[in-house]
Every structure is written in C-alpha cells, then in structure tokens.
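Sat 14:20. Reprocessing the chain from the morning session after the first attempt stalled halfway. Input below, unchanged.
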Amino acid sequence: MSHTAFSSFEQIASGTLQQVYGVSRHIAGALIFDRASGRVVDIDPRFPPSGEDGPKPGRPKLGVVPREVTLLPRHWDWLATQPGGASVALRKLLEEASRNPAAQLRQRRDAAYRFATALVGNAPGYEEAIRALYAGQHDEFAAHIEAWPADVRNELEKMTEEAF
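Finished this time. Tokens:
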C-alpha cells in the first residue's frame, strides 16, 4: 500500500506507511494519506507501524481476516443454498463487483475527493473541481485545480490519472 504525507500544502514523504510515518511523526499537523482510498491514516504513536503484522485470527497466510457481516434472514437463507456456503458466495459477489469498471472509476474519484477535501476543501474552485471530477470532465477539473498548491495539484493529478 502506498502512502503520502503532507504538512500544510507541502508533500513531505511518500512510500510505505512505516517510511512515511518515520519522516512525518515529528512534524506538527502532518497528515498521512492512503493513496488508494484518499483517507487520512490515524496512527496511535504508542503503536507505530512496524512493517510486521502479529498473528491474526482467520487464515493469515491467505490474507483472510474474520469480520462481522449483518444481513437479513432472507439473505442468510439464500447464502445457505449457494455452493461452497456463505463465504464462497460472498467472495464471488465481491470479486465481481470490485472488477466492475464503473465501481473502480468511482473509487478513484472518491479517493481524490477525500484527499482534496482534507487539504484544500476551502480553496477557490474546490466545489467546481469536485463537480467536474464526478462529471468526468478532465479539462474542467484541471482548470479548477491549476491555482492550487503545486504538491497538492501534483498528487491529485496522479490520483486521477485513471479517473476520467
């Protein structure tokens, strides 16, 4: 997973979470972003990222992590009739949905939206840029972010390469 850190409008680090945290941990007000989701990563300094994951329940070698899913009784009934059981059916449905080009496009746009909102949500042209982003208007989007700080603009351009 790729991360980037910003202090105000200046990019201060980019790389793995461990690398970015190492550079930004002593900079007041620094924000670390997950590039794939655009979300701010909140790190408890008592438990900094180490690059090593401890043992987890499930099938860790396969990357399986148990979580709770809440469904209606009719959904559980339908899942019970599927070959391989509920887990296999849910995985197949999720894989199919996640490969949908429209869903991938939406994820990229949502990531850019989150990132922009956190850093330049009050910037001139912000609302117009976001409208252009979701309307798929690349040239309009580029025009509205042109006056934004260079590092923010560069990061948004990278994040939206495949969003139009």
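Helices lie at 17-24, 73-80, 85-98, 101-120, 126-135, 138-145, 150-159.
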